[in-house]
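Model it.
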Amino acid sequence: MSTAALPPGYANASVAIVVALIGVLTAWQLASTSLEFAVRLGLLGALAAPLLATLPGLLRRKVYTARWASLLSIAYIGIALTESVVSTDERLLTSAMAGLSFAMFGALVLGIRRARPV
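Modeled.
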């Protein structure tokens, strides 16, 4: 059984996008005024934990991690688009989150398609 690795450019782009997405998630939760602070921190932890879990595999350029992370990005797209429509106060941050989620999905899918056996 041969194993494949993500191309370095796609892996690096995916890592940068995930880190940026975590930053936008943090800014969004800290800027939100609709919930209590403790609830926002819990929500931030619940949203950031899956993204943090992808980083070791993406840094090692694992295709398996890229595959499940691409499925994970669809959930973030849905959350971002829903929040963009619902809350007008945080529309800029949630739109940035949607854009980064789309970019994450695109970088991961293209990286998976370009992966070659090692």
